[in-house]
Amino acid sequence: MSMKEQGEAPREGSLDAPTRHPLNWKEADFYNEELLYKELERVYDICHGCRRCVSLCNSFPTLFDLVDESSTLEVDGVAKQDFWKVVDHCYLCDLCYMTKCPYVPPHDWNVDFPHLMLRAKAIKHKNGDVKLRDKILTSTDAVGKLASIPVVSQIVNTSNKLSATRKVLDSVLGVHPDATLPAYESNTLRKRVKSKITSNNSAKLISDPTSSTKGKVVLFATCYGNYNEPHLGEDLFAVFEHNGIVVTLADKERCCGMPKMELGNLYAVEQAKNANIPVLEKLVDAGWDIVAPVPSCVLMFKQELPLMFPDDPAVLKVKNAIFDPFEYLMLRHKEAKLKTDFKTSLGKIAYHLACHQRVQNIGAKTRDVLQLVPDTIIESIERCSGHDGTYAVKTEYHEISMKIARPVIDRVKKSEADYYSSDCPMAGHQIENGLKGNKAPTHPLTLLRIAYGL
């Protein structure tokens, strides 16, 4: 008999592991604005009484300022239209749910702040309340294909560095002139590893499995890993192959859907799922594991798609077969399948733990692997970089994003480390922006390749 059934007050906080309920995004009530406002007011009132998440992002300071400046000093004194100001600052990092909130299910109050914000974003999108800029920024496949065309990539990359061009982007699209924009590579990852893919797919390569890994992986390159920083995929190929792991790429792939989800365009997420899952499912059935170099993409297949499509067996099959690269390496290390023939010490590393990696509940596997390198010291930084992929480049949010990143940037400065690094490449460049470009980030996969002397 539960406390509620006994008529007792709910406990202050919960000692139970969080339980994530599916996102009922295809039910009619999901898009009912009256019900949305009712739930927003209920959850905002709980957040106002707790305030534990004030340091995570700007959603919570925005909410608390609205309450403190209201006539009643309570949520009921906040204008309903101002509720959207809180929604607009949420970039679905999930840290409030996974690391701070004591009222997540199975607690009786059933608070899922990120999914409530996602519901609000979905309603905004359905109502057509979307800027052209946001549509462009989240169309990563289309922009990547266009911007990676030879000559076009040179023009784009050069233009993104010119102050005159950036002022135009600011005034016309709302892209902040000081925000770091990703470079585009005409020599994409798929072009760079084409011969490896052909070889691995055609030759009778012998994999070396463990109890939890197949010993051969499909690299879900991601749009960012293919068009913007293909060296990440090259580094992964080098490190994994050095450890006897067979690596290939899927025949085709689309964006994982995370950018569209953050926009609230859930039907575009479904389209991406319908393109990616059948391809990945066939590979899983053929005995392959899956890895991806960007934490957000891994999280999309591990958590977000299973919560959106909980009854789709193919989605669940891919969920159980996808790994963070360093999670995969540590699983193999537990069974003495990771080589430790390191040639080079890495010295001191200021290591930023990416939000979308932290919420995968796998532990700090990147740190654990890098600590295997002799004479290497890892200083871990568990604070959000404030980037989110699109939030940090928007004119109205860039300065706020840099404020969120300031504690991370200060820690990196203070560490005086030989390298600073983040599994999220965009977070790494956000830190670089705060350091005023004095030193570029080095991705953990690149660090491991350096340590091996590959």
Any overview of this molecule?
By secondary structure, the chain is α/β, with parallel strands linked by helices. It folds into four domains: 18-126, no CATH class; 132-172, no CATH class; 189-331, no CATH class; 338-452, Rossmann fold (3-Layer(aba) Sandwich), CATH 3.40.50. It contains 24 helices and seven strands. The strands form two sheets. The chain has a four-stranded parallel sheet with strand order 2-1-3-4, sandwiched between helices. A three-stranded parallel sheet has the order 6-5-7. Helix 14 (231-242) packs across helix 24 (444-452), helix 16 (266-285) crosses helix 18 (313-319) and helix 17 (295-308) runs antiparallel to helix 18 (313-319). It is globular, with a radius of gyration of 22 Å.
What labels would you give this structure?
single chain, 454 residues, alpha/beta, 4 domains, four-stranded parallel sheet, 6% strand, globular, disordered N terminus
| Count, helices | 24
Record field, number of beta strands: 7
Terminal Cα separation, in Å? 60 Å
Q: Tell the overall outline.
A: globular
Q: Which structural class should the secondary elements be placed in?
A: alpha/beta
Topology (SSEs and partners):
Layout: H1 3-6, H2 33-50, H3 59-68, H4 83-88, H5 95-100, H6 113-126, H7 132-137, H8 140-147, H9 152-159, H10 163-172, H11 189-192, H12 194-202, E1 216-219, H13 223-227, H14 231-242, E2 246-249, H15 258-263, H16 266-285, E3 289-291, H17 295-308, H18 313-319, E4 322-323, H19 325-333, E5 347-352, H20 355-358, H21 365-370, E6 376-381, H22 398-415, E7 419-422, H23 425-434, H24 444-452
Parallel strand pairs: 1-2, 1-3, 3-4, 5-6, 5-7
